[in-house]
Automatic annotation (TrEMBL):
Binds 1 zinc ion. This is Transcriptional repressor NrdR. Belongs to the NrdR family. The gene is nrdR. Negatively regulates transcription of bacterial ribonucleotide reductase nrd genes and operons by binding to NrdR-boxes. GO terms for molecular function: ATP binding; DNA binding; zinc ion binding. Residues 46-136 form the ATP-cone domain.
Length: 167
């Protein structure tokens, strides 16, 4: 790292801390030549390869704007959308690759959106997965119902087991 003051080719790291939301590192450096201190921020990049082949930087804002359309008229706030976008980015970064296809971003959105709001999930999935018939919607709704019924049965099983021991 070149010193921004004297352009010396080397610097020494004095202190390192995570910055922002943990996706970058803030380093305090000192030049051994002029002894002045300066700060650098190191961040990993995450690129999205669009269907057209164009590569662009991952944007939480683009995730939010895409999901916001599906959430129109639903009880989903801006904070919920921001958390969803952060979770999507974390899921993608956890894969440990620097470039992902746009389709992978869409797939990463589906599960957190299903947990957030099922109607918004159906809207997003219908566009993203290209639903073109009533059967596609019925299959997706059937899957959501099966998950809900399994969760209810598991909750009743946990409650029922505790009640039967008291007899």
């Amino acid at each position: 790292m070149h010193c921004p003051f004297c352009r010396h080719a080397d610097s020494r790291v004095v202190d390192s801390r995570t910055a922002e939301d943990g996706s970058s590192i803030r380093r305090r450096r000192q030049c051994p030549n002029c002894m002045r201190r300066f700060t650098t921020i190191e961040a990993t990049s995450l690129s999205v390869i669009k269907r057209s082949g164009v590569t662009e930087e991952f944007s939480r804002q683009k995730v939010i704007s895409g999901v916001r359309k599906a959430c129109q008229g639903r009880p989903v706030g801006e904070d919920d959308l921001a958390k969803l976008a952060q979770r999507v980015e974390e899921l993608i970064r956890a894969r440990g690759i620097a470039e992902v296809d746009a389709d992978e971003v869409g797939l990463a959105i589906l599960e957190p959106l299903r947990e957030l709001d099922q109607v918004a999930y159906l809207r997003f999935a219908s566009v993203y997965q290209g639903f073109d018939s009533l059967e596609d919607f019925e299959a997706a709704i059937g899957s959501l119902r099966a998950e809900r019924d399994a969760a209810i049965a598991a909750a009743e099983g946990a409650d029922g087991g505790a009640g039967s021991e008291q007899s």
